[in-house]
TrEMBL record:
<dbReference type="GO" id="GO:0005524">
    <property type="term" value="F:ATP binding"/>
</dbReference>
<dbReference type="Pfam" id="PF01503">
    <property type="entry name" value="PRA-PH"/>
</dbReference>
<dbReference type="GO" id="GO:0000105">
    <property type="term" value="P:L-histidine biosynthetic process"/>
</dbReference>
<keyword id="KW-0067">ATP-binding</keyword>
<keyword id="KW-0028">Amino-acid biosynthesis</keyword>
<dbReference type="InterPro" id="IPR008179">
    <property type="entry name" value="HisE"/>
</dbReference>
<dbReference type="GO" id="GO:0004636">
    <property type="term" value="F:phosphoribosyl-ATP diphosphatase activity"/>
</dbReference>
<comment type="pathway">
    <text>Amino-acid biosynthesis; L-histidine biosynthesis; L-histidine from 5-phospho-alpha-D-ribose 1-diphosphate: step 2/9.</text>
</comment>
<dbReference type="InterPro" id="IPR021130">
    <property type="entry name" value="PRib-ATP_PPHydrolase-like"/>
</dbReference>
<keyword id="KW-0547">Nucleotide-binding</keyword>
<keyword id="KW-0963">Cytoplasm</keyword>
<keyword id="KW-0368">Histidine biosynthesis</keyword>
<keyword id="KW-0378">Hydrolase</keyword>
<protein>
    <recommendedName>
        <fullName>Phosphoribosyl-ATP pyrophosphatase</fullName>
        <ecNumber>3.6.1.31</ecNumber>
    </recommendedName>
</protein>
<dbReference type="GO" id="GO:0005737">
    <property type="term" value="C:cytoplasm"/>
</dbReference>
<comment type="similarity">
    <text>Belongs to the PRA-PH family.</text>
</comment>
Amino acid sequence: MTEFSLSDLEKIVRERAHSGDPDSWTAKLFARGIDKAAQKLGEEAVETVIAAVKGDKQALVSESADLIYHWLVVLGISGVPLSDVLRELEGRTGRSGIAEKASRPKG
């Protein structure tokens, strides 16, 4: 199997987003806008949690793939490149998660 990355998937999402292909779920989501895409992201998040709690590894893999795909769609519609998220994560690696969370503004 070749190495497949989130960047590869982001590129595919970007290419399909405005393709006009009537058979493209990505094009349909982009056309329907952020509300629909965010709704789908939330649904996939819940399904991922359910699979994890049930201990269903195959469902967890499948639902995680759906979750990541819909997350990239939401980022794409919002104009947020994956590199911005990765940069944020990279900046957090030098401190503990507890300290990082405590440093966030309250509200």
